[in-house]
Every structure is written in structure tokens, then in C-alpha cells.
Design brief:
The complex is a heterodimer of chains A (93) and B (455). By secondary structure, chain A is of the alpha+beta class. Chain A is 16% helix and 23% strand. In chain B, the strands form 8 sheets. In chain B, strands 3-2-1-27 form a 4-stranded antiparallel β-sheet, with no helix packed on it. In chain B, strands 7-8-9-10 form a 4-stranded antiparallel β-sheet. Chain B has a 4-stranded antiparallel β-sheet with strand order 11-12-13-14, with no helix packed on it. Classes of the chains: A alpha+beta (93), B mainly beta (455).
């Protein structure tokens, strides 16, 4: 199994309702994996990253259990089978 | 899952579109505007800073500017008066890559001129103007303003660096006004290709140079379509009027308890009449003395009178934000405003009397009042009938005997260059006390707080 994305409820309108998207191919980094994700589900892109390609400040991406904020951001390498979770930050008011 | 209540507006109804920090609420009433039905929340959890209804060119399309704390700003459209909303796979309002900026918030959505169906404008944060020529399907950045040499020196206030007001001039083709906090007023006369700062006479209290060319924290400007040379301006400290299309501004803070405030609304039929809600100061952004008072001028700012009937006059420390007030287009005009404490007040008689039309909402960010269909075809029930109905008298006999609370009185018109139709104005039951207010607080400037931070 290559890379699997877990999609939060708010974004499932852009993944045909799927909570889980399995990618075909073997992306080398998180950035590559996201590029593949929005090839299949383009509506997800602008909700995850800004026009400038930066991950929105209140969106967290985890590779397995590690936040990519501490592992190299979008350049975080993906090795073997892994799960990428898109998780809204604990923020708001 | 949040349950969303739906309403069914009909032609001739008045709708109040209320944007809050937790979604949008849509209210409807018939032309009497005494009983309101509320739907929502639409977009639960999102901040809704901008709402609009466009009825030009045979369409009836509603727009909303929302922002999710997590997933960014979204431009929504509805073709069924808010029952269902759609957004695009690819964000409709977006900065081009070479702009080097990312959209933070949509502050304002404004339909263009009556004879330009499909033309829309959108003011955003970071301060920029977008335009659409296809009723919101696609948008492009107005480069003339984005590339303005002043832009790098604009500074964000408490609400962010926002372009919050867009006024396409109804008469002069190619002319348009925008207002930026903090940047000030800018005008184009060539359809957006070039822009000039138009802040002469407007103070910047929070700057060492009190009269810079630009950098003022203008909170709102309004214009009447029949008198396009005249504009009114609510500043971060200061009330102003221009008679020359913003070439120069004159102080009109005559008899208001504070010249600080955010919201400002033009009367739909009278270019001399404007509504504001003074706020104590920028250090204490609440209504002065715990009294919720709308102030109205009927003589283009030569004098202001408080409108209080039906509004709380004690323990009312309220804040009304810059887009938190609006007027409908009926006659008499309805005036509406929402507070940061989640209340919406409405007046069906031009401000003479008020009532709470919604309460317990999240903090209100914007209020837009619209008439579904052509306002000129809507017959407003006479005040006497409305008053009896409002008192709950059901017997015909009682209804006929009911005295009108407000007495229609022909308006004595001040000196005016307007050609607008004369209208009957309801006389406030509680006598306005502008002079007493003025005596207590002769000049708004005396109540200014120590802190002078822009918002």
C-alpha cells in the first residue's frame, strides 16, 4: 500500500464524500503527495494551501503520527507505506 | 451537524442578510417590516464579512464572503435566495501567483452600476480590489490599485489591512471610490487603471503628521446615487462630508457625543440624510454612556439628532462594526443594524422607532438590507395600520381607534441641491435632544480617549 490520505469532514465535498483517498504512485515527499491528491481531487487544493503554495496556518498535516511542521514541511520525505492525515488545528473561538 | 433553518422569501419581501462570526442568518418580512422570520445559520462556524443580493440583468443571485479559520476564505453564490449555496473547486477570488499575496478575507461584495449587469467588485484583505464581469464566476485583480506606490505603506488596523468599501460612481463612467483601513480614500476616473489618494482634510489622529496625503484610517464612506459629488465619511476619529467627489473633506461632527465610530448608512431616497452610531473612543469601543443611539442628520451633517425610541438607554455598551448597518429601499426606508453582542435592531420608519428583530446571534459582522424584486412596486402599509397591528389589537374596532404612534409630517427641507422627491418623515415620539447633547458634549473631540490606535 503506498500513501493514504485521511480527509476531514469539511473537505469531503471535494473528494466525492470519501474520508480516505489512496494514491496510485509513490510520491517522494509530502508536497509531491499533495500534488497527486489534487490531481484527482482539485477542490482540496485551495483549502489546504494558499495561492502561494503554503500550507494554511490552521491546517496540520501528519505523516503517520509526526506533524510535518517538525519534519521538513512539504519537503518531508515519504518512505514506504504511510498515512497522511489532514487535521484542522485546535483553534478558533 | 448544525440544522439550518430555511425561509422562503417572496417578491416584495424585505430581507436582512446578517453575517456573523459563526455564519450567516437571513431574515425576511413583508413590507410592513414588523414581524421577522429568520433562517440560518448558513456556513456554520465561518466568519461572514460580506453579503449581497444582485438583481440586475434578469438574475437574482446572492453572494457571500466567508472565511473558515482552518480552510481559508471562500466566495459563495446562491441562485435561490440563500436556500442553497455553491463555491467553486478552484477558489474564485484569488491573488495571481506573481502578486506574492494570499487572500485572507473577503470584506465587501458590491454589484456594479445598474446598466452593467454581471459586473461585480470585491474588496479584500490584504487590501486589494477584484472585479468580475460574469456575475462572480471569475475574478481578476485590479492591477492599477495593487501596483499603486502607496500600497507598501498602508498599515493594518485592528481589523486587518482591508479594502472595505467600494463605490462605483453611478454617473461618471470609470469613476470609483474605495476606502482602505489604513490607507484612506482612493478614487479612479479611468475605470481602475490609475488611482489617486483623496484624503485632503481628513485627520489621521494616530500619526505624527495629522494630515498626510494617505494613511488615514477611514472606516466607511457613503454616497447617494442622485448626488454623486457628495460623500460622507466616518473616520477613525472624525465625521466628514465632501461636496467635490472627495477632492476635499469638511468636518461635520456637529453635536454628536463622539466622532469615533464605524458604521455609516445613507438614506436611500434623501441625499441629505445619513445615519451613524457613535462609539465612545478607540480605547473603549462601545456606545457612549451606555446608551444605544443612532444619530441621524437630515441636513447633510449641519446637525445630528439622536434616535432612541425602542433602543436601550442604559447598560447598553454596544459596538456596531463598519458594515453592521444598512437601509432598505422602501418608502419609508427601513434602517437596520447589528451589534457585536448579537442583536439586530430594525426601524421601519426611517429611524423614528426601533425594535429588536433578532437576538442571541453570534457577534454581527455585517448587515445588508434588500428588497426582493422591484422596491417601487412594493406598497408599504400605512403607519396607523402597522401600529395597531404591532400592538396586537385584533378587533377591527380597536384597530380603527388605535392612534398612530408616529405622526406623519411633511418634511421641512433644508437647503439642498437635491432633486430627490420630497418624502413624508415620521416624527419621533420622544423628542430628539441634539442641543442638549451638544451642550453636554459640545465637540466630539473633547471625549477622545488617550489611545489612538487605528482599527
Amino acid at each position: 500500500m503506498p500513501v493514504v490520505f485521511f480527509i476531514p469532514g469539511f473537505l469531503r465535498q471535494w473528494t466525492d464524500g470519501k474520508p480516505r483517498v489512496e494514491l496510485e504512485g509513490r510520491p517522494a515527499t509530502v508536497g509531491d503527495a499533495l500534488a497527486l491528491l489534487w490531481e484527482y481531487h482539485p477542490g482540496v487544493r485551495d483549502r489546504i494551501v494558499t495561492e502561494q503554495g503554503n500550507v494554511r496556518p490552521h491546517v496540520n498535516l501528519f505523516v503517520d503520527v509526526e506533524s510535518i511542521r517538525f519534519t521538513g514541511g512539504l519537503a518531508t520525505p515519504l518512505e514506504g507505506n504511510c498515512e497522511v492525515s489532514i487535521v484542522p488545528a485546535v483553534s478558533g473561538g | 451537524m448544525v440544522a439550518i433553518r430555511q425561509i422562503t422569501p417572496r417578491d416584495g419581501d424585505v430581507m436582512i442578510l446578517v453575517g456573523t462570526t459563526k455564519g450567516a442568518f437571513l431574515l425576511r418580512s413583508n413590507a410592513a417590516r414588523r414581524r421577522w422570520e429568520m433562517g440560518g445559520p448558513h456556513f456554520p462556524g465561518q466568519k461572514i464579512h460580506a453579503l449581497a443580493l444582485d438583481q440586475r440583468g434578469g438574475i437574482r443571485r446572492m453572494y457571500a464572503g466567508g472565511s473558515s479559520d482552518h480552510f481559508g476564505p471562500v466566495f459563495y453564490m446562491s441562485d435561490d435566495l440563500g436556500a442553497t449555496w455553491s463555491d467553486r473547486e478552484r477558489a474564485a477570488v484569488r491573488f495571481p501567483e506573481d502578486a506574492g499575496a494570499s487572500l485572507a478575507r473577503i470584506w465587501q461584495i458590491v454589484p456594479g452600476r445598474e446598466d452593467e449587469p454581471g459586473k461585480l467588485y470585491c474588496g479584500v484583505e490584504p487590501a486589494a480590489l477584484f472585479e468580475s464581469n460574469d456575475a462572480g464566476e471569475t475574478w481578476s485583480l485590479v492591477r492599477g490599485l495593487w501596483d499603486h506606490p502607496h500600497r507598501a505603506q498602508w498599515q493594518p488596523g485592528g481589523g486587518g489591512l482591508c479594502l472595505h468599501t467600494v463605490i462605483p460612481d453611478p454617473v461618471h463612467r470609470g469613476r470609483m471610490f474605495v476606502a482602505v483601513s489604513t490607507g484612506g480614500v482612493y478614487r479612479t476616473d479611468d475605470g481602475g487603471a490609475t488611482w489617486q489618494a483623496r484624503n485632503h482634510g481628513v485627520r489621521a489622529e494616530f500619526m505624527p503628521n495629522k494630515h498626510p496625503e494617505f494613511g488615514q484610517c477611514v472606516h466607511k464612506i457613503v454616497q447617494h446615487p442622485t448626488f454623486p459629488e457628495r460623500l460622507f465619511l466616518q473616520n477613525h476619529w472624525g465625521l466628514y462630508r465632501s461636496e467635490d467627489a472627495a477632492e476635499s473633506w469638511q468636518d461635520i461632527a456637529n453635536g454628536v457625543p463622539s466622532d469615533f465610530g464605524f458604521a455609516m448608512t445613507m438614506h436611500p431616497h434623501d441625499p441629505e440624510t445619513v445615519y451613524i452610531v457613535p462609539i465612545e473612543s478607540d480605547g473603549f469601543r462601545c456606545t457612549p454612556d451606555g446608551k444605544l443611539r443612532v444619530y441621524r442628520t437630515c441636513d447633510a451633517g449641519r446637525s445630528w439628532e439622536p434616535l432612541t425610541r425602542g433602543l436601550p438607554q442604559e447598560h447598553a455598551l454596544e459596538t456596531i462594526l463598519r458594515d453592521g448597518m444598512d437601509a432598505d429601499a422602501l418608502n419609508p426606508a427601513g434602517i437596520y443594524f447589528g451589534t457585536r453582542s448579537g442583536k439586530v435592531y430594525g426601524s421601519p420608519d426611517g429611524g423614528a422607532s426601533w425594535s429588536t428583530i433578532a437576538d442571541g446571534l453570534p457577534p454581527v459582522l455585517c448587515v445588508k438590507a434588500v428588497v426582493v424584486g422591484d422596491p417601487l412596486k412594493v406598497r408599504v402599509p400605512k403607519p396607523a395600520a402597522r401600529t395597531a397591528q404591532a400592538r396586537g389589537r385584533t378587533k377591527p374596532k380597536a384597530r380603527t381607534k388605535a392612534k398612530p404612534r408616529v405622526k406623519a409630517k411633511p418634511r421641512v427641507k433644508p437647503k439642498s441641491r437635491t432633486k430627490a422627491k420630497p418624502r413624508a418623515k415620521a416624527k419621533p415620539r420622544v423628542k430628539a435632544r441634539p442641543r442638549a447633547e451638544a451642550a453636554r458634549r459640545p465637540k466630539a473631540k473633547t471625549s477622545r480617549g488617550a489611545k489612538r490606535k487605528p482599527r
